[in-house]
């Protein structure tokens, strides 16, 4: 029922507590042992936990608050009720969701620790910004809270984009003759149903020099041809 990796973590937690001559092994001892458990440590890192800070806080708390048994005799460290509840909660959860065919891992125990809401283990996890939902989301869906590392190939592209944006803004501040011509043409298109406005726009374009030379010549040529046509019509003999 309990996976081999979890058995190793629990064994190391008891060994450490006995060596320190601790009277009890607590939920904080359990969380400290899970920092070196493969499945639990993977979740903590995915949830952006600072494992070193968490280890330091747990170690200091255990040292300051766990009763020490004095004397030369061997120490028989006992699990607290909270410790036992966490293990039982993890086992029951796995049994209810997998028909008892799945082993209990460090990840399951990490989720079960959040049931001890008044423990300092949960308090230290919350200090790291880790909630039960974060852990469950990673186990069920692989959703992480750790920020993705920036790809080196993306940095030059971002730089080029910024540079092109800067050059674009510079050119927009100093419009060229082509920009002015485009503006005039766009205004003419918007007023295509108003001949008088169209004439004024064309006149402004010619006077400002915004029209390219070929456009000026074509305009002048059309005006010349219209004058010639009028002269020809005036010189035609009348038929009475």
Describe the secondary structure blueprint for this structure.
Elements: H1 4-19, E1 24-25, H2 27-34, H3 38-46, H4 51-65, E2 78-79, H5 81-98, H6 106-113, H7 120-127, H8 132-141, H9 154-173, H10 177-190, H11 195-207, H12 213-235
Helix pairs in contact: 1-2, 2-4, 3-6, 4-7, 5-6, 10-11
Describe the protein's architecture and organization.
The protein is mostly helical. The chain has two domains: 4-141, Clp, N-terminal domain (Double Clp-N motif, Orthogonal Bundle), CATH 1.10.1780; 174-219, no CATH class. Helix content is 68%, strand content 2%. It contains twelve helices and two strands. Strands 1-2 form a two-stranded parallel ribbon. Helix 2 runs antiparallel to helix 4 (51-65), helix 4 (51-65) runs antiparallel to helix 7 (120-127) and helix 5 packs across helix 6 (106-113). The longest helix has 23 residues, at 213-235. 23% of the residues are buried.
């Amino acid at each position: 029922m309990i996976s081999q990796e979890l058995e190793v973590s629990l064994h190391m937690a008891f060994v450490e507590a006995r060596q320190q001559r601790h009277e009890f092994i607590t939920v904080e001892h359990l969380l400290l042992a899970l920092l070196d458990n493969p499945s639990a440590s993977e979740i903590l890192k995915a949830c952006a936990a600072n494992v070193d800070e968490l280890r330091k806080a747990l170690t200091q708390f255990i040292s300051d608050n766990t009763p020490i048994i004095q004397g030369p005799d061997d120490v028989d460290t006992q699990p607290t009720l909270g410790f036992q509840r966490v293990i039982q909660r993890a086992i029951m959860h796995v049994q209810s969701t997998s028909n008892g065919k799945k082993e209990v891992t460090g990840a399951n125990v990490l989720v079960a620790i959040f049931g001890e809401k008044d423990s300092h283990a949960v308090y230290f996890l919350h200090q790291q910004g880790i909630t039960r939902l974060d852990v469950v989301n990673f186990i069920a869906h692989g959703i992480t809270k750790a920020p993705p590392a920036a790809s080196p190939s993306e940095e030059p592209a971002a730089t080029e984009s910024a540079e092109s944006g800067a050059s674009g803004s510079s050119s927009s501040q100093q419009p060229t003759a082509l920009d002015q011509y485009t503006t005039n043409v766009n205004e003419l298109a918007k007023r295509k149903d108003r001949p008088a406005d169209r004439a004024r726009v064309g006149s402004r374009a010619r006077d400002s020099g915004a029209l390219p030379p070929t456009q000026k010549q074509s305009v002048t040529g059309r005006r010349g041809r219209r004058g010639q046509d009028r002269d020809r019509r005036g010189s035609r003999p009348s038929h009475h």
